[in-house]
Amino acid sequence: MTTIAPEFLESIMPLLQDEQEKDAFIEACTLPLKKSITINTHKASLDEFLAITKPRWWHLSPEPFTDAPNSFSIDRDDLTHALGNTFLYKSWFFYIQEIAASMPANLIETKPWDIILDVCAAPWGKTSQLANKLLATQENPWLVIANDIAASRVQTLAHNLNLQWMYNTAITKFNGFMFGKHLPNFFDHVLVDAPCSWEWTWFKSDYALKFWRQEEINKIAWTQFQLLISAIKATKVWWTIIYSTCTINAFENEWVLARILEFFQGSVVLETVTLQNTEDGYNGQVWDVSFDQWALVKRFWPHKQKTWGFFVSKLRKVADKNDKPAQQDHKLLPKNHFKIRMHKKLQQEVATYAKKHFGIVIDTSRYFFIATKESVYVTSPAFATVQPHLHCEKVGIPVLKIDKRLWFRPTHYFGLIFWADATKNTLQRDEATIQEYVLWASIPAPSDSDPWTYPYKIIQRVIGEKRYPISLTKFVDWARKNKWWK
């Protein structure tokens, strides 16, 4: 039985109609959430993914929303393999994401040339959505900067972005308060999925609801207010900021927005969030302010939308309120950036390697390579414009290892990212074989695995008339191994 603090129930009662709705809310907090996924459309289009999953008896439904075009609730008839162990997941056709959490990124109207900041990016879901939207345009995919202040969360963020092979990303590790001060008017869009009281975790644990305290909420709301100020200052004039939380209470949502609008005095305006099957914000007094633009924001309830508790809003910066110029020597500047190689010779070396061994012609409008002593990373060409202004903990995806003889060895991600242009050293295998392969089983090497030509091959699955990348495999001990890159 979920334990809910009386103080929390008292705080949300003004948002509910009556005791009957309160009972419905409490009951919903005892129920599990339905599994939902988001499709990586830069790998397979929505129509292709639906065609792939239909014969496997995957039932995808956009309910309760139709505003998240690539996110679906999912039911499966065949539960032989857990959703996270299917070859479609292991080869990153999709990732598991709560459907309400997919809404903030969908509200950003991306353009191919956008540079987007995700201020509180960990663990990675919304960053992946934004990067995927840029990649799926098939034009020059610019850059998503994923930031988090905690080193442990940065490691998780880097790992997950690698798995999704979102190469048009870079990771920073700064206090989110710093961006507005040091990089004013720099980003096209900023997403602030703010740290909050985690009321949504009721379906995992009742800890947040059981120990909900107003004193803690006060501290959290003040942090959210400061983060949002920084995000707005860092955004270019006439561009947008998305503010969202995974909470229900009005203190972390309407109060923060009311204070922001008061602080910026007309230089920032709220825009209407148009989402079907959602609820408007709270129309009433919150602490010392009255929020009168409640119809422009949206709230998600577990007993109505059958999702976790969520809040989302959209702001537009219409004027610049910064009264201080950006500092020339600020704390976000790159450190030891001379250790990263980005020169034209590196681009040529990688292009020659890809052409020689896989028949791949590198598209320089979409791919840009940087190198450390040990690895070569692929990222967006837009990184060259960001690099002088911002120190990044990680950039792009590692696609080549550099050994002591200065030879290149491809990584698993090389096969996933550049597969579409490969004309040689590829293998096509049936679904049953690939399902075992992604669960770390070796494939006995047939006659096409000649170790004396080139031991690495891109393994693919032919579905219909199209090939899809699964992995990059290595010939070892007369078998094709999948553990070598793990």
Provide a quick synopsis of the model.
The protein is α+β, with helices and mostly antiparallel strands. It has 15 helices and 25 strands.
Biggest sheet record = 10 strands, mixed
Overall domain count: 3
The percent range for helix content is 25-40%
CATH homologous group name of the largest domain: Vaccinia Virus protein VP39
- Estimate the mean pLDDT confidence: 87
Q: List low-confidence stretches.
A: none
- Which architecture of the largest domain per CATH? 3-Layer(aba) Sandwich
Given this structure, which CATH class of the largest domain is correct? Alpha Beta
Give the overall silhouette.
globular
Strand content: 15-25%
Q: Which structural category do the helix and sheet elements fall into? A: alpha+beta
What is the CATH topology assignment of the largest domain?
Rossmann fold
Could you characterize the architecture of this molecule?
The chain is an alpha+beta fold and 486 residues long. It has three domains: 32-96, Alpha-Beta Plaits (2-Layer Sandwich), CATH 3.30.70; 101-317, 3-Layer(aba) Sandwich (Rossmann fold); 425-486, Archaeosine Trna-guanine Transglycosylase, Chain: A, domain 4, CATH 2.30.130. 28% of the residues lie in helices and 24% in strands. The strands form five sheets. Strands 5, 6, 7, 8, 9, 10, 11, 14, 15 and 18 form a ten-stranded mixed sheet that branches. α10 packs across α11. The mean pLDDT is 87.
Question: What's the structural blueprint in terms of helices and strands?
Answer:
Layout: H1 6-12, H2 19-28, E1 36-39, H3 46-53, E2 58-61, E3 71-76, H4 87-90, E4 94-96, H5 103-106, E5 115-118, H6 125-135, E6 143-147, H7 151-163, E7 169-172, H8 178-182, E8 187-193, H9 207-210, H10 214-234, E9 235-245, H11 251-264, E10 268-271, E11 279-280, E12 284-286, E13 289-291, E14 298-300, E15 310-317, H12 344-358, E16 368-371, E17 375-379, H13 383-386, E18 394-395, E19 397-402, E20 408-410, H14 412-418, E21 426-428, H15 431-438, E22 443-444, E23 456-463, E24 466-476, E25 479-481
Parallel strand pairs: 5-6, 5-8, 6-7, 8-9, 21-23
Antiparallel strand pairs: 1-3, 1-4, 2-3, 7-18, 9-15, 10-15, 11-14, 12-13, 14-15, 16-17, 17-19, 19-20, 22-25, 23-24, 24-25
Helix pairs in contact: 10-11
